[in-house]
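Hey team,

Filing this mostly as a record. A colleague (T.K.) asked me to run one chain through the structure pipeline before their review meeting, and I want the input and output archived in the tracker in case anyone asks later how it was produced. No errors, nothing strange. Just documentation.

Input sequence:
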Amino acid sequence: MNLSTALMEFPLRQPVAIFLLVLVIILFTPLLLRRLKIPHIIGMILAGMVVGPYGFNILERDASFQIFGQVGILYLMFLAGVEIDMFNLKQNLRKGVLFGLISFAIPMVGGLLLTHYILDTSWLTSTLIASMYASHTLISYPITARFGLTNSRSAVISICGTVVAVLLALVVLAEVVAVQEHGVFQWFRILRLFGLLIVYCGALYYLVPIMTRRFFKSVNEPVTQYIYVMAVMLLASLLAQLIGLEAILGAFLAGLVLNRYIPKRSALMNRIEFVGNAVFIPYFLIGVGMLININVILKGWNVAWIALNMIVVALVCKWLAVYIAQRVYGFDKVERMLMFGLTSGKAAATIAATMVGYQYGLISEDVMNGAVLMILGCCAIASIATERAAMKLRMGIAEEKLKHETGSKRSNARQLVAVANPLTAEGIMKIAIYMRHPKNKLPLTALYVRNNDDPANIAMGKNALQTAVKVASAVDVKVDDVERYDINIATGLVNVLKEKNCTDIIIGLHRKSNIVDTFYGSMIEQLLRATNKSIIMSRCFIPVNTVTRIVVVVPPKAEFETGFRQWVTRIGNLATQVGCKAIFIAYKETIPYIQGVLTAEKYTISHEYREMETWDDFIMLSNRIHDDDLLVVIGARRTSISFSSDMEAMPTFLSRYFANHNIMIIYPEQFGAEAEMPTPIDPLSATITSNPSPLLLSVNRWRAQFSDYRKRRSSRRNRIDI
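Output structure:
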């Protein structure tokens, strides 16, 4: 058969033609429905109905749709687990579990009674249909992702509730099948299933992080990392099926476990979202549309009556569950609508229950067709409700942010990233990106400075610039790459810093080349003397996304420095992107100000505080910092109020006790433009509204040195447990 004949026969059999038609649907459906203000999710399902076997029969639901569709629903749940903020998840976990129980119990009980008495079915069949009502699919989750609401409390609680409701619904489905096969209900099967679930979750929680951390440390190739993530997702899904659960639960748990190692602003996250939203998830939605046969309504009113009954019962029960949760948690109407939109869609578990029920003779063909039409109706209403709620909620959040930013003194960073070696350029650029605010749209400057015409150095510098630009481009960060010739490197950095009006310099920490070399090196020492802007030096032996904890050591009186708020926000951004805990070791007087900045800027990170009695405690940290930790030391220039004689010995301490640790040293901006003091959480704490005078700075510095001297003599060196 030639190509022209194959293209004229329907359904299409030619692979290229099939894939081309699917891509055309994915391309033009959102563009067309956007003009009609219809959610594109509904458009994908409608397109599947039109081109499917019950429409114009242009495409059949062959193996490609089954494979891509199955991966698509797994991808949907996996994205929900990867994109969720783990701090928000822990904060709302109890609420999510309780909502899941409510969202399961009300549809289960209400659906069981209404189905039995209205549709006149047996109790076993009614239980099966009620499990369809109790389960739901995050079919409208991409809408919340598009509006940036995946970490709102209503979305997080809905995602948690989805996992609980689907798990319980699948247990009910398994028991219905077991009773149909064996004729008796056995508690042993349920206990065995939950026992296997505990073992399964424990294995994922403990083994996958170890494997992932080792893999990401040894493999830095983007495509290989993506394949690894997909392999973990599919393996977790397959193991979930082996123990008797649905694969979507395994995909969601895999997303939660890998969440920690996939920063939100990373090339890996971009690839995961792009492939899922461009191919797999649309394939799944089109495949769902192919299952729907509108023609069955024309065969008789019985199917239409069954479908209408199932749609009303399913939506009303889910709405009641959301209404109860809203009253219990004190949410507003917009959040209630968003939760209803996320939890009223039907797809994966409902399709599985429908097919299993029809296979075992528990439901008739009319009920099966009614269930398929219920999927269409629930998906349409869920998409519309989610889009309307997301739009209103997004507008409300935008107004709050506008008010907050109007009264806030925070300004976006203009970062200057100095690179020289292609081997370290990628890591330095990633740190710079992770320390930026997500809303920062200002371009980032990548700079290579040379002071000779050595061809080898020129080639290495250009390769370093290309590597840095590639890393930033992968996460849609604009970069101005600059190659500069200057009398020395420090002078070139300072000149570009002034030309670009940059606020931060991010540079790799110097590595000693000989025994007489200093810890910082001559270039960084010159840089510290030449500029008062923030300087961030880093040395990481492991990828920054595999860091377990960020331990920040803060000197006394750091809250009085001009750049105090600036470096706290940088640490907050870094901890948010990496998803690890931040531990601040500071003096008692400084801790409330750190808390004040994190609270004012609304950072949802896990953070703790440890009081430091003397600067000598800094030495005691060497055996408390692990290989997977990042030690951040806040430095101070000689002319700053937080400088002391102990700070002068800091390079020696770092070189002697932390030679093999991941280190970041931050020298905050000093004596720059006037900055507002951060407000401490404690309302009784003192507030300072202006910078001290130079005379007062000198007096305070002398008093601090004398006080530190007395403390070192009188206090014992307590070890700090972090």
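Quick notes for T.K.: The first strand starts at residue 415 and ends at 418. The domain at 540-722 is CATH 3.40.50 (Rossmann fold).
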